[in-house]
Amino acid sequence: MNKKILVMCTGNSCRSIIGEALINAKLDGIEAYSCGVAPSGKVNLNAKRVLEENAIWNDKYYSKHLDEVIDIDFDLVVTVCSHAKETCPIFPRPVNKIHIGFEDPDGKEYDAFMQTYKEIEEVLLTKIKEALI
Q1: Which of 41, 47, 81, 111 has the most CB within a 10 Å radius?
Q2: pTM (2 decimals)?
Q3: Known active-site residue 88
Q4: Are 21 and 38 a contacting pair, CB within 8 Å?
Q5: Any catalytic annotation for residue 35?
Q6: Catalytically annotated residue among 6, 7, 9, 22
């Protein structure tokens, strides 16, 4: 049975989208979703580029509000920025939450997106495995 994970940040344009894609591509038995507490409405082009270059981009990834996914029965909610952690809502049923902050690459050069991708891959995936054991 698949575990369901929600990755939340503020804008749902960089970090949470990268996290969603990495989880879906690299963790078997886990289905990831992402959202923002104040979504930008678009995926940052450099975030999309880094996912394409790593062959894990999927056109189903888009910037969305928590309202679109709140009714899914998540096994784990992961906040990847302080603002999302502080404003993380109450879910319809109890769900474990963890916070793993990553610096926002938005507005920076492409190298910052590659670094964020590597950090999320190394840190987030390990923490998720630990949290679901």
Answers
A1: 47
A2: 0.93
A3: yes
A4: no
A5: no
A6: 9
Strand order in the sheet with 3-9: 30-36, 3-9, 76-79, 96-99
**Whole-angstrom Cα distance, residue 20 to residue 7?**
6
* Mean pLDDT, all residues of the chain: 92
Catalytic option among 17, 43, 81, 100? 81
- Tens-place pLDDT, residues 77-119: 999 987 766 776 667 788 888 999 999 999 999 999 999 999 9
DSSP-H helix ranges across the chain? 15-26, 45-53, 82-87, 110-119, 125-132
pLDDT, one tens digit per residue, over 34-55 is 999 899 999 999 999 999 999 9
**Are 68 and 39 in contact, with CB atoms under 8 Å apart?**
no
Torsion angle (degrees, nearest 10) of CA 121, 45, 65, 10? 60
* List 27, 69, 70, 88, catalytic entry: 88
- What is the CATH classification number for the domain harbouring 51? 3.40.50.2300
81 among known catalytic residues: yes
Position 92 scores a pLDDT of 72
Total number of domains constituting the chain:
1
